[in-house]
Write a structure and sequence with these properties.
Elements (H helix, E strand, L loop, with lengths): L7 H12 L6 H20 L8 H17 L2 H15 L4 H35 L9 H9 L4 H27 L7 H17 L3 H23 L3 H6 L8 H20 L3 H15 L8 H17 L3 H17 L7 H6 L6 H16 L18 H10 L2 H13 L8 H10 L2 H4 L2 H12 L7 H13 L8 H19 L2 E3 H7 L7 H10 L1 H4 E3 L6 H10 L3 H14 L3 E7 L4 E5 L8 H16 L9 H17 L1 H82 L15 H85 L3 H130 L5 E4 L2 H4 L8 E4 L2
Antiparallel strand pairs: 1-4, 2-3, 3-4, 5-6
Helix pairs in contact: 1-2, 1-3, 2-3, 3-4, 3-5, 4-5, 4-7, 5-7, 7-8, 7-9, 8-9, 8-11, 11-12, 11-13, 12-13, 13-14, 14-16, 16-19, 21-22
C-alpha cells in the first residue's frame, strides 16, 4: 500500500482514520501510530504541494502530538525542520503557533509524569506493612544500589520526559536561531529552558544550552563580519543586529546570568558576562538602565566569589552609580553628584557603605613589585607594577577592565579618588566614612589607630551586608601601622606589637606571615618618602599632568632608599634597620674564621710556660699580622674584582647560550613555516585544479541541458547527463525537433488559409452596415457642434460683464495691496540677512570644532604610539630578566640536589656504622652469656659435694671433634 498522499488533506484524513480505530490493544495501537506518523511525514516531505496551506498546520499539530506520545524527539525535530522550510516565507506565524503548541504539550507531559511518579510513590507507601520486616527483594536492592524506591520510580517515569523536554528546547532553539521575525519566540523558549534547569537543578543541561546559544551568536557575528555563500543561504531570514534584537539578546543573557548565580555556576556566569559585553559592543546605543544595573550587580557578585577585590569594588561603584543616580554614561564624579536620587535614603546609605568598604578592602597589590608604600596609591608606580606582570596576567586584567568599560586596567588610587570626589563618604554610614578618613586621608598614628577604629569595626561586623569586608579592612590597618612603625621606630618588641593590634580580629601568626611573605613589608620605603595622606590630598585636589609627573618622580626616588623589617625571635623584637645582605659577606666571614683558627693554634698548650715566652710569641704574631695586613687587603680587593669579572663572563656565556638557542628555535620555526606554506600551496593548487575540472564539467552539463531544452527535450530529470552518450541524445533531439517544426509549420499554413477565407467573408457582409453608421455619426456630430458653440459664446459674454464689475469694485484697494507687498518683502529680506549671518557663524564654529577635534585625535594617536613603543621595550626587558632568573633558579636547584645526595650518602654511612656496632655488641653479649653458663655448671657440681676429680680426657686428641671439650667424672 502506497503512503504517498500528495495532498495534505488526504494524508491528514487517513492518519485520523488510523488513530480512531476502536478496541485495539497497546501493541496494535503503537504500530497504528507509527503508520499514521509515517503517512504525515511523507506528506510533509512530498515534492508536490510545497506551497503552505492551512491544512499543513493541522497536519503538523497531529504529527507533533504523535511524536509526543511515542517520545520520538528526533522524528519531531526532522518534521519541524521540514515545516520551517515549507512555511517560513509565506506564513512565519504558523511556525510560531506550531512551536508554542509543541513546547506547551511537552511541558504538560513532563508535569503529568512528575505527578504520576508522586502518586505511584504514595500508592506504594500505602501498601507497605509498617510492622513487617523488609522483604528479601528490598534487602537485595538496598545492598546493590544507593537509590531508594522513590529514586527508581523517578528514573523510570520522570527521567525519560526530562530527556525529551531537553531535546525539545534544543530543537526549538536550533530552528529559531537565524530568523529575525521569530526572535521573540527564541527569547521566550530560552527563558523556559532556563526555568526548566532551575526547577529540576539540571546544571549540565544549563551549561549546554548556554554553549548552544553562544554558538548561535558566534555564527551570526561571523556572518555579519564576513558573509559567505553558504551562510547567506542559511541566514536569508536574518535581518542583522538591530536595536530590538540586541535588546532581546541582552534580556536573555541577563536571565542566564541570574540562573547561573542561582545554580552557583560562577564560571558559566563569568562567560555569560563576557557574552553580554560582546553583545553590548554590537550597537553603539547604551542598553536600558535596569539591564545595566543587573549586569553590574551580578558582575560584582562574581568578582567577590573569585576574590578579585579590585574589580569587585569597581563593579559595586558602577552599580551604585546606576542604581542611585540613574547614570547611563558614568561621566564622572561631578555628574554623579548632580543627578537626582532614585532610591530611598536608607538604601542609598547601605549601598554607599558597601562601595566604601569594598574600596578599602582592595589589597595593596603593588607591594610585591614596589619597594615603596606609595606604590599602593600612586598611579605611575601602579603602571610600573602592571608592566612587571606576566603577559597572561596583563591580558586577564585587560579583559576584566573591558567588562567594566575601561580601556586600561584601573587602579585602587583612582577608585578611592572617585569615591571621595563623588561624595560617597557623606552618604555612607558613619563607621565606614570614619575608617576611610582615618586610614586613607589622615596621618596614621600607629599606637592609637587600632583603638580609634575598634568601635567602628564592631559596628560594621553587626551589619550582615558589610561584615564580609571587615577582614580586608583589618589587613589594610595592619599594613598602614607597619609602614608608620618603619618611619618612627628602629625596633619594636613583639609584646608591644601584639598590644598595638589588640582589638583586631588578626592573630600575631597572621601578622608574622604577612611580614614574611610580603616583600613590600620586609623591604619598605625609608622615612624620607612622602606620606599617604599628602598623596591623597594632592591627587584629589589637583588633576594636572604636572602633578602626575611629580608624584611619579617622588615614588621612584623613594624607592631608592630601603629599610628591612626583620623578626628577631632571640631578642623577641622586630627590627627596622638598614638592609644588610649577609650572603654577600659569606667569604669574608669564612676567611675571618680561618685566621682565628690559625691564631688559636699558635697559642701554647702548656699552661706552665713562662709569661715572657708567651709575650714574645704574642709580639711576633702581632708583628706578622701587621706586616701582612696591607697585603691581605690588596688580595681581598683583587679577589672581589676577579669575582666580578667571572660573574660578567658567566652572564655573557649565558646570554650567548640563550641567543644561540633562540636562533636555533627561530630557524626551526622558519623551516617548519616554510614546509607548512609549501604544503598549503600544494593543497591549494590541488583544490584549484579540482575546482576548475568541476566547473568545466558543470559547464558541459549545463550546455547539454540548454541544448536539449532548445531542441524541445523537456523531460531531462530522468536522464543521467554525466554517463549517457551526449551526441546520440543530441542527434535524437535534433531529429525530433525538426519533425515537430515541420508539423507546426504545416498547421500554421492551414490555419492562415482558413483565417483568410473567414476575414474576407466577414468584410463583405459588414460593408453596408459600416457606411450607414458613418452617415449617422456625421449628422450627430454637426448638431452637437452647433449647440456647444452657442453655449460657449453665451458663457464668454457673461464672464466679461462680471469681470468689468469686479474691476470697478476693487480699484480703490490696488494702492493698499501694493504698499503691503513692499513692506512684507522688505521685512522678509531683513530676516533672511540675519538668518544668513547666523548660519555663517555656525558653520565657522563647526569647522573650528572639527579642526580642534582632528588635532586632538592626532595627538592621542601619537601618544598611543609612544605608549606602545614603551610597553614593547618593557616587555623585552622583562623577558630577559625572566630568563636570567630562570637560569639562576636552575643553578640553585642543582646545588640543592647535590647537597641532598651528600646528606643521603652520609646518612647511609652512619646507618651502616651503627649496624656494625650493634652486631659487635650482640657478639660480646653472647660470649658473656656462654661464659656465665659454663661457670654456673662448674659451681653447682662443687656445691653438691661430689667426691671425685675432674680431668680433661683426651683433650688434645679430641679437641678437633668437640667445640667446648668433654669433661668426665672419675671415682676414686
Amino acid at each position: 500500500m502506497s503512503h504517498f498522499f500528495h495532498k495534505p488533506e488526504n494524508a491528514l484524513k487517513r492518519a485520523r482514520e488510523l488513530l480512531s480505530i476502536p478496541n485495539v490493544d497497546a501493541g496494535v495501537l503503537k504500530r497504528t501510530k507509527h503508520s499514521a506518523l509515517e503517512i504525515l511525514h511523507d506528506a510533509l516531505i512530498a515534492k508536490k504541494n510545497r506551497t503552505w496551506q492551512p491544512t499543513h498546520e493541522e497536519l503538523m499539530i497531529l504529527y507533533l502530538d504523535i511524536c509526543l506520545e511515542l517520545q520520538m524527539g528526533r522524528v519531531a525535530k526532522d518534521g519541524l525542520h521540514q515545516y520551517r522550510n515549507l512555511c517560513i516565507q509565506h506564513n512565519p506565524a504558523s511556525l510560531e503557533t506550531i512551536i508554542k503548541h509543541f513546547v506547551t504539550q511537552a511541558e504538560r507531559k513532563l508535569a503529568s509524569a512528575k505527578k504520576e511518579s508522586n502518586e505511584l510513590n504514595l500508592l506504594a507507601a500505602a501498601k507497605v506493612d509498617l510492622d513487617a520486616a523488609q522483604t528479601p527483594e528490598d534487602v537485595m536492592l538496598s545492598t546493590t544500589t544507593f537509590e531508594g524506591s522513590n529514586d527508581r520510580t523517578d528514573r523510570e517515569v520522570v527521567v525519560p520526559w526530562l530527556r525529551f523536554m531537553w531535546e525539545t528546547y534544543r530543537t526549538v532553539l536550533d530552528i529559531l536561531k537565524s530568523n529575525s521575525k521569530l526572535e521573540p519566540l527564541y527569547k521566550s523558549t530560552a527563558m523556559q529552558a532556563f526555568d526548566f534547569c532551575v526547577e529540576y537543578q539540571r546544571k549540565i543541561e544549563f551549561r549546554r544550552v548556554c554553549e548552544i546559544m553562544r554558538n548561535h551568536l558566534s555564527a551570526l557575528q561571523k556572518h555579519a563580519a564576513a558573509p559567505t555563500s553558504q551562510s547567506t543561504r542559511q541566514m536569508r531570514s536574518w535581518e542583522g543586529f538591530t536595536l530590538e534584537s540586541v535588546e532581546r539578546l541582552l534580556e536573555v543573557r541577563y536571565r542566564q546570568l541570574q540562573v547561573a548565580t542561582d545554580l552557583e555556576l560562577f564560571s558559566e556566569a563569568f562567560r555569560t558576562i563576557d557574552d553580554i559585553n560582546n553583545i553590548m559592543n554590537l550597537v553603539e546605543q547604551t542598553p536600558r538602565v535596569e539591564l545595566l544595573v543587573t549586569y553590574y550587580e551580578k558582575l560584582a557578585q562574581i568578582f567577590q566569589v573569585s576574590k578579585n577585590h579590585l574589580f569587585h569594588a569597581y563593579a559595586l561603584y558602577k552599580w551604585y552609580s546606576l542604581r542611585v543616580a540613574g547614570l547611563q554614561g558614568l561621566a564622572g564624579a561631578q555628574a554623579l553628584q548632580e543627578l537626582p536620587i532614585l532610591v530611598s535614603e536608607e538604601q542609598q546609605k547601605e549601598m554607599a557603605t558597601r562601595v566604601v568598604l569594598a574600596a578599602l578592602s582592595i589589597p595593596l597589590l603593588d607591594f610585591e613589585a614596589s619597594s615603596s608604600p606609595l606604590g599602593d596609591d600612586d598611579s605611575s608606580v601602579a603602571q610600573v607594577t602592571d608592566n612587571s606582570l606576566s603577559a597572561a596576567a596583563r591580558d586577564k586584567n585587560s579583559r576584566m577592565a573591558a567588562l567594566l568599560g575601561f580601556a586600561t586596567t584601573p587602579t585602587r588610587a583612582n577608585l578611592l579618588e572617585d569615591v571621595a570626589a563623588a561624595g560617597l563618604l557623606s552618604k555612607a554610614s558613619t563607621a565606614a566614612s570614619e575608617i576611610f578618613q582615618r586610614v586613607e586621608l589622615q596621618e596614621v598614628d600607629p599606637l592609637q589607630i587600632v583603638k580609634q577604629l575598634e568601635p567602628f569595626l564592631t559596628t560594621i561586623r553587626a551589619d550582615p551586608l558589610a561584615k564580609t569586608y571587615v577582614d580586608g579592612v583589618e589587613r589594610l590597618v595592619v599594613r598602614r601601622v607597619l609602614f608608620q612603625l618603619t618611619r618612627v621606630y628602629a625596633s619594636v618588641t613583639i609584646a608591644h606589637l601584639r598590644s598595638i593590634f589588640v582589638g583586631l580580629d588578626v592573630s600575631y601568626e597572621e601578622i608574622e606571615t604577612l611580614i614574611a611573605r610580603s616583600r613590600s613589608l620586609s623591604t619598605v620605603a625609608h622615612a624620607s618618602a612622602p606620606s599617604l595622606s599628602s598623596m591623597y590630598r594632592r591627587n584629589i585636589t589637583q588633576h594636572g599632568s604636572n602633578n602626575a609627573e611629580t608624584s611619579s618622580a617622588d615614588a621612584v626616588s623613594s624607592a631608592q632608599s630601603r629599610t628591612k623589617i626583620r623578626i628577631d625571635h632571640v631578642e623577641q623584637c622586630i627590627r627596622f634597620t638598614d638592609a644588610v645582605d649577609l650572603e654577600a659577606n659569606a667569604s669574608q666571614l669564612t676567611l675571618l674564621g680561618e685566621r682565628l683558627s690559625r691564631a688559636m693554634s699558635k697559642v701554647p698548650a702548656n699552661a706552665t710556660a713562662s709569661v715572657a715566652v708567651r709575650d714574645e710569641q704574642k709580639k711576633k704574631l702581632f708583628a706578622a699580622t701587621r706586616a701582612r695586613l696591607q697585603e691581605q687587603r690588596s688580595e681581598m680587593l683583587a679577589r672581589r674584582e676577579v669575582i666580578e669579572r667571572k660573574k660578567e663572563e658567566l652572564e655573557k656565556l649565558q646570554q650567548e647560550k640563550v641567543q644561540s638557542l633562540e636562533k636555533k628555535r627561530q630557524e626551526f620555526a622558519q623551516r617548519r613555516a616554510e614546509i607548512e606554506r609549501e604544503r598549503l600551496a600544494q593543497e591549494a593548487r590541488r583544490r584549484e585544479a579540482e575546482k576548475k575540472q568541476k566547473i568545466q564539467d558543470e559547464i558541459k552539463l549545463k550546455e547539454t541541458r540548454q541544448m536539449l531544452d532548445k531542441l524541445g527535450h523537456t523531460d531531462v530529470s530522468d536522464l543521467d547527463l554525466a554517463t549517457i552518450d551526449k551526441e546520440k541524445v543530441l542527434n535524437e533531439a535534433k531529429e525530433k525537433a525538426r519533425k515537430a517544426k515541420e508539423l507546426a509549420q504545416q498547421k500554421l499554413r492551414e490555419n492562415a488559409r482558413r483565417l483568410d477565407y473567414i476575414v474576407r467573408a466577414t468584410r463583405e457582409e459588414e460593408q453596408p452596415i459600416l457606411q450607414r453608421q458613418v452617415a449617422e455619426a456625421k449628422t450627430e456630430a454637426l448638431k452637437r457642434y452647433e449647440q456647444e458653440s452657442a453655449s460657449k459664446l453665451k458663457r464668454a459674454k457673461d464672464e466679461h460683464e462680471h469681470g468689468l464689475k469686479e474691476k470697478t469694485r476693487l480699484a480703490p484697494a490696488i494702492q493698499v495691496s501694493t504698499e503691503f507687498v513692499k513692506a512684507h518683502k522688505a521685512r522678509r529680506i531683513e530676516e533672511y540677512k540675519k538668518a544668513s549671518e547666523e548660519q555663517k557663524k555656525k558653520a565657522m564654529l563647526e569647522r573650528l570644532s572639527a579642526r580642534v577635534a582632528h588635532a586632538k585625535e592626532r595627538y592621542e594617536e601619537e601618544q598611543q604610539r609612544l605608549r606602545e613603543e614603551e610597553e614593547e621595550k618593557e616587555r623585552i626587558r622583562r623577558e630577559e630578566e625572566a630568563e636570567r632568573e630562570r637560569q639562576r633558579q636552575l643553578e640553585v636547584e642543582e646545588e640543592l640536589r647535590r647537597q641532598e645526595e651528600e646528606e643521603a650518602e652520609e646518612r647511609r654511612i652512619a646507618e651502616e656504622k651503627e649496624r656494625e656496632e650493634r652486631a659487635q655488641r650482640e657478639r660480646e653479649e653472647e660470649e658473656k652469656r656462654v661464659e656465665q653458663r659454663s661457670q654456673g655448671r662448674f659451681g653447682s657440681a662443687g656445691a653438691r659435694g661430689l667426691t671425685g676429680s675432674y680431668r680433661n680426657r683426651d683433650d688434645d686428641r679430641r679437641g678437633d671433634d668437640r667445640d667446648d671439650g668433654e669433661w668426665t667424672h672419675v671415682n676414686r
